[in-house]
Fold UDP-glucose 4-epimerase.
Amino acid sequence: MRVLVVGGAGYIGSHMCKLLAGRGHEVVVFDNLVTGHREALRWGRFVEGSLHDAAALDALFTQHRFDAVIQFAASIAVGESVREPLDYYRNNVGGTLELLTTMKRHGVRRLVFSSTAAIFGTPQYSPIDENHPHAPLSPYGHSKLMAEQVLRDAAAAGHLDAVALRYFNAAGADPEGELGEAHDPETHLIPLLLKAALGQVPPVTVFGSDYDTEDGTCVRDYIHICDLCEAHLLALSYLQDNPGFSAFNLGNGKGYSVKQVLAVVAQTIGRAVPTVMGPRRAGDPARLIASSELARSKLGWQPKMPELETIIRTAWRWHQAPGF
Ligand SMILES: NC(=O)c1ccc[n+]([C@@H]2O[C@H](COP(=O)([O-])OP(=O)(O)OC[C@H]3O[C@@H](n4cnc5c(N)ncnc54)[C@H](O)[C@@H]3O)[C@@H](O)[C@H]2O)c1
Ligand SMILES: O=c1ccn([C@@H]2O[C@H](COP(=O)(O)OP(=O)(O)O[C@H]3O[C@H](CO)[C@H](O)[C@H](O)[C@H]3O)[C@@H](O)[C@H]2O)c(=O)[nH]1
């Protein structure tokens, strides 16, 4: 397949490009590098441009006949979305709309879309399956839910076929050490702990120890980036026989508290990790754990690296010698 990877210079998108190329697919990346890295663009062709540039998108689709599109490009920081909601709706909803309009105009039907656990809000039950009600707690979560609605409606109208994948906590890095997580500023727990262990950032604040969980800290379901990317490949195949709109939750179904993550990090890397206790971070649900039974049964998805220790070991390899 010839696959357009929008946002392919970012953390998840760059891992996706490596996987696609490794499986013999032709890759074209479209990215404005607002948070992505030029150095991560090692697989496929790169076209620099923004989703807000309709002419650039049109030229891209005129030049290449894509069999499918994977849409990773978005603004992703939950806290920032509360401060700058218009930017988030513009990029995550408006940008996606521009892409879909171009796809429709050029007759490209197949789309895999990056969604998030943030569409569910505070869990009403756990693990969270696809029937769980949607009640986002942030403009970021709302923007992704709105984009999903757009996909659902466009699919119902017969314009395209789409799979939305709701990632829980994406973590880890390319086991070969060629790619890794390099958000700037970094807000995610595992890379922050590794950077703190290396003395690159101040001690990590543990956001709240009074949650209704086993040890009082928040519980999350961490999923290896490579397992996540495999699910996108499976979703592309699924779309061949399953037109319309579908959505799948992606996690390992196992929760780790912040304190448990800390302990596994310290044990895996053999170093102490400086942390301080702090207050809760606004908008953090106590527990987010995925049920991925639907992805397993419908997509045939089977995570190969479910252990937190493996996730941390691959991330640690990258952080000790980051390529960018
Ligand atoms: N990282 C996570 O834990 C996580 C969890 C759930 C969902 N997601 C979703 O996965 C996707 C990828 O996340 P990531 O962690 O790789 O983020 P990232 O910031 O590393 O990557 C996003 C990429 O999109 C590009 N981009 C942003 N706006 C663009 C625009 N208007 N035009 C062109 N390119 C644009 C950026 O330059 C960047 O390369 C996002 O949609 C995010 O919401 C991520
Ligand atoms: O410095 C930090 C950073 C995080 N945490 C805690 O560690 C856990 C994981 O936090 P991350 O910021 O790594 O991840 P989130 O669970 O907040 O966010 C993830 O899930 C969200 C959906 O809820 C979004 O999709 C987001 O993009 C994705 O990274 C949370 O309990 C958080 O409170 C800390 O204690 N200290």
Notes: The radius of gyration is 19 Å. The CA atoms of residues 35 and 185 lie 10 Å apart. The chain has ten helices and 14 strands.
